[in-house]
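Re: the request from the purification team.
They wanted to know what the chain is likely to look like in 3D before they choose a buffer screen. I agreed to run a prediction and write the result into the notebook, where they can find it.
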Amino acid sequence: MDKWLWAARFFKTRALASKACELGRIHSNGVEAKPARMVRAGDRLRVKNEGGEFEIEVLVLSEARGPAAVAQGLFRETEASREARIKAAAERKAMQEFAPLPERRPSKRDRRRIIQFRGGS
């Protein structure tokens, strides 16, 4: 599973793909997938990563990471998944418009308070 997710370019490294499996962010045919799970053509995967949540169908198997154009041919995303990702992206973009912009850069004192608030040393 982790090799295929890496080859299909859902994650930059196999370690990140493996970690996502362990955290339960990858589901194969409705079941949480472990990193060592075998992927078969026709499997339906739900993948959550920083790019959003994808619902895909595996078309071709690959263990080698190639160009992005080749990687896109390894799977097919469902229309509902594509529309949901586009809608979520539009909502995030709309929310940024309402966020107030800071008047100036934080001062040294402000930075110290921010670091302290975040639990830093």
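For the purification team: The helical segments are 2-7, 14-22, 68-72, 79-98, 108-117.
Please add any questions underneath this entry.
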